[in-house]
Structures are given as C-alpha cells and as structure tokens.
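Need tokens for this chain, all 165 residues.
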Amino acid sequence: MKMWITLLAAVMIMAAYFLILYGGVGFVQDKRFFSSAPKENLAAIPDTKERFRGAHIIGWLIIAVALLTFLGAAALAIGDGIKNDFGFLQFFVRFLVMLYLMEVYDIFFFDWVLLCHSNFFPHFYPELKGIVGPHMFGYNKKSHIIHFIVYIPACALVAWICTLF
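Here are the structure tokens for all 165 residues:
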C-alpha cells in the first residue's frame, strides 16, 4: 500500500504540473510561464492580449486547481507516512521517487511529446510552427541534471522535517 500512495501522489504532481502549463500557455499567456523555454521560442512568441473575454480568469483558476493538487499530493504523502510511522529513509525514498518520476515525466512528456512531437505549443502560438520540433529535444539537459542532483538534499531535508512529527 505504501508504494501505491507514493505513485498516486506522483501522478497527482504530474497532473498538476500539466495543468500549470495548460493554464499558463493556453489561457493566461504570460511569458513568465515560458521561462524554461528555448530562447528562439521566447523570441518568436509575441506579447498577446486575452484570446477571449475571461481567458485569464480561466487560466488562473486552472493554475489554482493545479496548486491545490500539488498541496494535496504533499499532504497525502506526508499524512500517510506519519500515519504509518515512516522513518527518515522511508520518507526520503518516497519523496525522491515522486520528484524523480516528475522529472522523467517532464523530460518525456513535456519535452519529447509536447515540445518535439505534437502541435501543443503551435496550437496556441502559430508563430512557433517550424521552430519547435524533434531538434529541440535535450535543449534543457543541464537543468534536468541539476534537478536530479538538487532533489537529493531537498528530499533529505523534507524527510528529516517529516520525522519530527
């Protein structure tokens, strides 16, 4: 049962991560949501007004749901761990699995599928047709490697904090 909770929390995080992207790219359309995008993509994306009346509100509501889903995943993972008397190592592994699964999801779904092999971004920004494609895969390899490294001490800190309860 412990692994199922970990996987459920990881799936919740992945869904929330996608909702933030969808709300930001599709409705809010603020370039702050593109901070990790390749420079040539950022240069091609124009500053746009609302696509339709209320689009920004819908986008921010989607983002709010995503943030609540992130918090729910954390509460589920932590609450279940406390209920089952997890020690440091169990919490650490749970959080590390959750974050590593999220990072792998980012690499394969966001980068490989959405950026390189779908019409997701050009659907919202036609200016990106011909700019995005398979050649973009791996543009952010350095940041992914940094994430994999930084997650280790971050998970250790959170696991230590959780064992205090």
